[in-house]
Design a protein that fits this description.
Blueprint lengths: L17 H24 L2 E5 L2 E2 L5 H10 L1 H4 L5 H12 L6 E4 H10 L5 H8 L15 E6 L3 H12 L7 E8 L7 H10 L11 E4 L4 E4 L2 E7 L16 E5 L7 H8 L4 E6 L25 E3 L3 H17 L1 E11 L25 E3 L3 H8 L7 E8 L6 E8 L5 H14 L6 E4 L16 E10 L3 E7 L4 E6 L3 E6 L6 E6 L10
Parallel strand pairs: 1-3, 4-5, 4-9, 5-8, 9-10, 10-11, 12-14, 15-21, 16-17
Antiparallel strand pairs: 1-2, 6-7, 7-8, 12-15, 13-14, 17-18, 18-21, 19-20
Length: about 500
């Protein structure tokens, strides 16, 4: 088992009164809560090493301060962060993200810097002036309100901020003819057997056939024809459609949305067929061009393993490998034995391990062309509703030890472009259910990393949630991580004698 990373760089003196120290810091954390909320309503999102402080309680904010020890070897103190946050809250800023953890950690390493002057210089380009133009929010329409649609609704509402970035304006559903249809859909949004209760309020407006979700009026539009919906009637224009139905996955099918004059762009929350680009946020998002009208967010498995494979390949070079995914059952499987177009998926999902196919290897090679022809893959569906396991057996060009691998992923998780994709944990007893609502694509489990001369085992978890990113301020890429939750990566690495781990 790997030792915890805890060099205690700053050598803090021990306090004499732990309880008194706790109550003092708790009071500061309580004071930070409204400051974070005020900034958020002004489109400024405050983070702690990639983790949002919004909607955190005082204790949760304190836990995030302690979490910094995973990165820096020593937790931050609210005594250090509060003055900086307070100063930021008084600044008139344009919409942006500010990582409080990174700022304060840098200041602690550079004690000669004046904290307030440093912050003002750092954020000088984000100062709101009289010439700053108000932003018109992007209209978002969800086409489909199944599991993915409801998770997306939660995430988009939670990330609305002051409403300058985007607004979820409508959800298109199949018409049921049931007079209680709106109430039933509100209930499904409010309650989730896996992710728990919705964090907010939901009101039903039968007259407008809409849901008022945390103050956002979201119209629920019954329709089966994307091209004939009268979005103008709802004040919707230049909308980005997020199609999560899975009905159409090729250009011909998805172009139906673009026939509507109120629609500007389309995003598919599944792997696309044909010439449509599959984009994994943080990996190949530079290929998403402003002029493109249709993009896809690839599969849950691809979003989970592609960042890991890229990181390993960039640092250690992959010769070849095999991907084995042990996947949670999905909604298309039968609860009990019944007819299914796929031979094995017709058998009871709740009672069986079901062998099935996967396009993971092919999908990854499309996102990471350098790995084309180097990977194979297969899959097994197992009786769990939300968490999957993938085992990657990789042969690398050179040997690598546990500490080197852990350090590589730690740096990627906290100080790289992949910081919004890869999470990192030192937990000794982490299990798949711990990551049900984690918003990262992958969580690297450093304690499960094993090296035995010529083989290394890395365990990762890919949380079943959603990441929302903006590409060039013109296009939204929404990658769906709904099913994949636990990934184990086994690296078979030929080691030379002098590379062997002592």
């Amino acid at each position: 088992m790997v030792k915890r990373f805890n060099p205690d760089k700053r050598r803090r003196p021990k306090v004499d009164d732990y309880f008194g120290d706790w109550k003092w810091r708790e009071g500061l954390a309580e004071t930070m809560v409204p400051l974070v909320g005020k900034l958020y309503r002004n489109e400024v999102n405050v983070l702690m090493y990639g983790r949002p402080l919004l909607n955190c309680s005082a204790v949760e904010i304190m836990k995030l301060h302690r979490f910094v020890r995973e990165v820096e070897g020593n937790e931050l103190s609210e005594i250090e962060t509060f003055p900086v946050l307070e100063h930021i809250s008084k600044m008139k800023l344009l919409p942006c993200e500010i990582d409080l953890g990174e700022i304060v950690s840098y200041l602690l390493e550079n004690e000669k810097l004046d904290p307030l002057k440093y912050v003002e210089k750092l954020l000088s380009e984000n100062i709101r002036t009289k010439r700053s133009y108000p932003l018109r929010p992007k209209d978002i329409v969800l086409f489909g309100f199944g599991r993915i649609g409801r998770i997306l609704t939660r995430l988009l509402i939670a990330d609305t901020g002051g409403g300058a970035k985007w607004r979820l304006r409508a959800i298109v559903v199949r018409g049921s003819g049931n007079p209680d249809d709106l109430i039933k859909r509100a209930s499904l949004l409010r309650h989730d057997s896996v992710h728990g209760e919705f964090a907010g309020t939901i009101r039903v407006n039968k007259e407008n056939h809409s849901l008022i979700v945390n103050g956002n009026e979201v119209f629920v539009i019954p329709s089966n024809d994307p091209s004939k919906i009268d979005y103008k009637k709802f004040g919707i224009k230049k909308a980005t459609i997020v199609d999560n139905t899975g009905i159409w996955r090729d250009e011909e099918g998805l172009k139906q949305h673009l026939k509507n004059p109120s629609v500007e762009k389309v995003i598919l929350t599944a792997p696309a067929k044909g010439k449509i680009k599959n984009i994994v946020y943080g990996i190949n998002d530079e290929k998403a061009k402003p002029e493109e009208k249709i993009l896809a967010a690839a599969s849950c498995t691809t979003n989970a393993i592609a960042p890991v494979l890229k990181l390993v390949d960039d640092n250690f070079k992959i010769v070849n490998g095999h991907i084995e995914t042990v996947h949670a059952y999905t909604n298309d499987q039968n609860l009990i034995d019944n007819y299914h177009s796929s031979d094995r998926r017709g058998r009871s999902a709740a009672l069986n391990l079901v062998i099935t196919d996967t396009g993971a290897a092919k999908a990854v090679s499309e996102v990471l062309p350098d790995l084309k022809g180097k990977l194979t893959a297969n899959a097994i569906r197992v009786p769990t509703p939300n968490v999957s396991l993938a085992i990657l057996n990789l042969t690398l060009k050179r040997g690598v030890g546990v500490e080197e691998l852990n350090d590589c992923f730690r740096k990627a998780a906290f100080r790289s472009k992949l910081r919004e994709t890869i999470d990192y944990t030192n937990s000794l007893d982490a299990v798949s259910s711990d990551f049900y609502s984690n918003e990262f694509a992958v969580v690297y489990d450093s304690q499960a990393t094993i090296s035995n001369f010529n083989s290394v085992t890395i365990t990762l978890s890919a949380p079943p949630w959603v990441k929302v990113g903006i590409i060039k301020n013109t296009f939204f890429i929404i990658a769906i991580y709904v099913h994949v939750s636990l990934i184990q990566l086994i690296l078979t690495i030929p080691l030379r004698k002098h590379d062997q781990i002592k």
